[in-house]
Design goal:
With about 140 residues, this protein is an all-alpha fold. The protein has helices spanning about 1-75, 80-90, 105-115, 135-140. It has a domain at about 100-135.
C-alpha cells in the first residue's frame, strides 16, 4: 500500500505541474495574440489622426477658396475696382487733386512725447499741434 500512496502523490504533483505548464502556454498564446493586435491598432489610431488633420486642412482651404470666389465677384464690379485702385495704388480721377500728408506719424509721436514729458519741460520746445487737432484742421488753411 505504500507504493500506491507514493504513486498517487506523484500523479497529483505531475497534474499540478501540467496545469501550471498549460496556464503558462495559454498566457504566452494570449500575449502573442495581443502583440499581433498592437501594431494594427497603433496604425489605425495614427491614420485616424492623419485623416482628422487632413480634414481640417481641407476645411481651411475650402474657406480660402470661398473667400477668393467672393473677391473675384467683387472685382467684377467697377465701383469696387475703383475703391481698390484709390486705396492701394493712389489713383485719382482726372481733375481731382491728390493730397499727401507727410510726417503725420512723427507729429503724432511728438504730441505724445510732449504729453508724457509734461508742460514745464515743453515750454522751450517748439509748439506741437494739439491732440484734439484732426487731419482736416491741419489741411485746411
Amino acid at each position: 500500500m505504500a507504493v500506491r500512496a507514493v504513486s498517487v502523490t506523484t500523479r497529483l504533483g505531475t497534474r499540478t505541474r501540467r496545469r501550471g505548464l498549460w496556464r503558462l502556454v495559454l498566457l504566452l498564446v494570449m500575449l502573442l495574440i495581443a502583440a499581433c493586435y498592437i501594431s494594427p491598432v497603433r496604425a489605425y489610431v495614427e491614420r485616424s489622426n492623419q485623416i482628422e488633420s487632413e480634414r481640417a486642412a481641407t476645411q481651411e482651404l475650402q474657406q480660402q477658396h470661398d473667400g477668393l470666389l467672393t473677391e473675384k465677384e467683387r472685382l467684377q464690379q467697377n465701383e469696387y475696382v475703383e475703391q481698390v485702385a484709390r486705396r492701394e495704388l493712389g489713383l485719382v480721377r482726372p481733375g481731382e487733386q491728390p493730397f499727401v500728408v507727410k510726417d503725420l506719424n512723427r507729429s503724432n509721436s511728438q504730441v505724445r512725447a510732449a504729453e508724457a514729458v509734461g508742460p514745464e519741460q515743453t515750454e522751450n520746445a517748439p509748439a506741437a499741434p494739439a491732440a484734439s487737432d484732426n487731419l482736416l484742421t491741419r489741411l485746411l488753411p
